[in-house]
Amino acid sequence: xxxxxFNLLHEGNDLQETAIYCPYCGExxxxxxxxxxxxxxxxxxCQVCCRPIEISVSEGAMxxxxxxxxxxxx
Length: 74
Fold this sequence. Notes:
This protein is mainly beta. The protein has one helix at about 5-10; strands at about 15-20, 30-35, 40-45, 50-60, 65-70.
């Protein structure tokens, strides 16, 4: 395996699919978290009720990404 192959494999590991629950409608939705987003906040609309969910991304002790969600009024 060459360096280019390693870089392609590594790039694929930068995203983590995570299930969150919408703070408005309570439905479980899937979001992709990027390791580069650790420490950032962003807004993503719920795929079910279309309301804006504020998502804070942090890195856990084992290197996993953690998403904390809240409404836009919290």
